Amino acid sequence: xxxxxxxxxxxxxxxxxxxxxxxxxxxxxxxxxxxxxxxxxxxxxxxxxxxxxxxxxxxxxxxxxxxxxxxxxxxxxxxxxxxxxxxxxxxxxxxxxxxxxxxxxxxxxxxxxxxxxxxxxxxxxxxxxxxxxxxxxxxxxxxxxxxxxxxxxxxxxxxxxxxxxxxxxxxxxxxxxxxxxxxxxxxxxxxxxxxxxxxxxxxxxxxxxxxxxxxxxxxxxxxxxxxxxxxxxxxxxxxxxxxxxxxxxxxxxxxxxxxxxxxxxxxxxxxxxxxxxxxxxx
Length: 282
Fold this sequence. Notes:
Protein name: GST N-terminal domain-containing protein
Number of domains: 1
Number of strands: 6
Organism: Entomortierella parvispora
Helix content: 40-55%
Domain GST N-terminal: 18-109
Pfam families: GST_C_7, GST_N_2
């Protein structure tokens, strides 16, 4: 816990660079979970924007190990990373960043990121994914860790309708697309154009997404005062879902985002709107 009377230095946060203006286009779900947590805790921080092809190099240069691996055992270097020069901490996983902020700065900002609640949403993947998911972990806040893994699985299973419209930074767009194709080569993809999902195939993914959100939405119906799982009190569980909603808001065509946000009585549209107070991009 921070107790020194010395003025705090701003925390350093590393996020993935997208097309300018980056405050409108940044949309990577895991960095957004961490950014939400930083804003929830009202932390003073600065962002370093990292070009997608440079993520592995930058993370390694910071001395932060990869926290996930591909199915073949290769390290998966990704962001976010948080560095706190006040304590010397370097944290390289969105969930661990939230746990760190709650532990180190328990009274800051809008309260407790992990208030007790039951988060019994389970999603079973039917097909393998291009990137590894966050893993469940034992210890503090296991209920939230399980929820994080299941929400990641549920949204990643439907992210195919988002990938083609990612707002890549023009300076590194071709290299970024090539990286996506390389990751998908084991599944037979040879061109980024093949990431586009159209017609009947797209409608099928959208219907599956609607059904998944219906199952997830059952947790939000427990407290009808909303828009959060605990009614008027936001928690890290809402920020987890919000990170994925942010990606969809940025990457889906406007009419499809309006469709998604109106499903199930507008439940997830209200959640997104309720999280806007934590959406500042510093």
